[in-house]
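Notes on consecutive records. When two proteins share a document, each keeps its own sequence and its own token line. Never mix them. Below: protein one.
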Amino acid sequence: MGFRCGIVGLPNVGKSTLFNALTETAAAQAANYPFCTIEPNVGNVGVPDARLETIAKIGGSAKIIETQLGFVDIAGLVRGASKGEGLGNQFLANIREVDAIVHVLRCFEDDDITHVEGRIDPVADAETVETELMLADLDSLERRVPALAKKAQSGDKEAKAAAAALTLALDLLRDGKPARLAEPRDADEARHLAQAQLLTGKPVLYVCNVEEASAATGNAFSAQVAAMAERQGAGSVVISAAIEAEIATMAADERGLFLEELGLKETGLGRIIRAGYELLHLITYFTVGPKETRAWTVEKGATAPQAAGVIHSDFEARFIRAETIAYADFIAFNGEAGAREHGKLRAEGKTYVVQDGDVMHFLHGG
């Protein structure tokens, strides 16, 4: 199961620098001119989880495998993208394919780095991108909804349900609001809204790229973004892409001291990754054995068979039961044997909803 966050924003806000640091590669060229990223670069990163090491130590595992989250570096958007300006059509197509949007905003002043709008105003930048996405969705729905309504008149129940769902989003867009604020009235409407892949239907995390001196505390620009995010019910994270790029080149044992000297408890990238994980409503469960301790990703509300299917589709189809231990019990009773002895290992069936931190072993038919 792959989940991907698209890194978007205006040109020269630090998207590619951030992507390079996230993936610890130079896969995306970072340059001071618009559209230096032409093709979307994709990189998978491990989701930091301190529980993994603890579980692996108790389980005597030879190696640890983190769960993964994908990040896509998408070409910079400019005003008029919804009408094809700049690399608008390509930008919109690439963003449609991701599950969530990580919107990088320039929250620093630097005369050596040009701004496509000629000024530093992260809230206005956010509104520029959001407006282009809303205009693209509006154009799409104003063509799709009448066609669905016409089809519904002939008695097509699926078309009727789709038209009703998309009208919710269309009404919001006409009112200048993003489609993610739509409130489906039932599961069918929720399904049709999800299938529509609306650009403004995706959850958003704002990343405030600040100068090095403000990495620990933020600045006036990032405070404005935080206030905007709170009004929208969105999230925001403060980072310095330049610092993160420097950290990415360091040996692992040097990073802690460097962060401490800057007054930082952890990397901004760690916060972004976790925030992206939460943005997509994901949780982690673990499998443990002599060869490896591994983290697996499922959506909140996933059942035990669905979790088994993440490992292999046959496991879901042939699911019998899941032997499950809560993370706290696995630690408290020093592993599977102790948890079993104290009655903390549970046999769960097909209706069990997986909880974050569950240590699981699946039994399935041959």
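Protein two starts on the next line and is unrelated to protein one.
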Amino acid sequence: MGFKMGIVGLPNVGKSTLFNALTKTAAAQAANFPFCTIEPNVGEVAVPDARLDKLATIAASKQVIPTRMTFVDIAGLVKGASKGEGLGNQFLANIREVDAIAHVLRCFEDGDVTHVEGRVDPVADAETIETELMLADIESLEKRLQNIVRKVRGGDKEAVQQERLMKMALVALEDGKPARVVEVDDEDAKAWTMLQLLTSKPVLYVCNVGEAEAADGNAHSAKVAEMAAAQGNSHVVISAQIEEEISQLEDDEAQMFLEEMGLSEAGLDRLIRAGYELLHLETYFTVGPKEARAWTIKTGTSAPKAAGVIHGDFEKGFIRAETIAYDDFVTLGGEQAAKDAGKMRAEGKGYVVKDGDVLHFLFNT
């Protein structure tokens, strides 16, 4: 599995420019006026992973298939979005469908680009969006609590659980805190996720800075870093303008351009890595002469569940996973050499897959 990240923020902060760069398309119109994005744009990008290319070279794989990540460019929210201001209701619904939120914040000064509030203050912008999402969650919860009263009185176990969780969320929200601060037990985790609360989504703050500040950030991005740390959220510093320029270049040219700008890697790589950490994701590989392929799983996934990412039958009929650690595969020069050196392990149903594992599943049909 990959994951779906919604790109949100106030109008004119660089969301669509970043989306265009990340997906290497011009599907999202980037223009200097609010609401230029009327429908959410969806784009898939390959997740860059140098390990996959190395494995493919060693195994002489004919095809290299990276795992993929989905970005959803959601139009600019404004103050009052929770009450339908701007195009609020439509976009709040779109946010419910994503796994995480990349909150783009304007951390650049540019008199030619209008700010809807007439000033550059990324922390205040973040608070504006968070407040709107919290208000939308409160309204949603209050309505749902009214709708399940009868089921709760009738002793419906599922409704009783939902009511308890919704009330926990409301306590936090009415105290000015997002739903993600609520600690939920394992037995409640699935029901909690089903509530689809906007503020339960993990947040990655994307500080959009000017080209000259892409390497080290600036005073604005430093304030965002401080805010993110206090909240337990993550942040990355990116120049959407640079990313858009890089997206138009060939790989060699792009690398030279990055070096000239004092950057060791593209913003896309940092953004995806931060997103993986945010959602506790990791990668395992399947490698052979036909193809080398990357697969995304949650950290802590068992071998049968990891097999199920490829096909449900793999999980149902799971027998064992022939496992080689990435470092062993590369150091020894491939599957057979690792096997000869005793580095291939037969792991059963209880094995927890590790990031970088090279796996071959055996299963009953």
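For the record: The mean pLDDT is 86.
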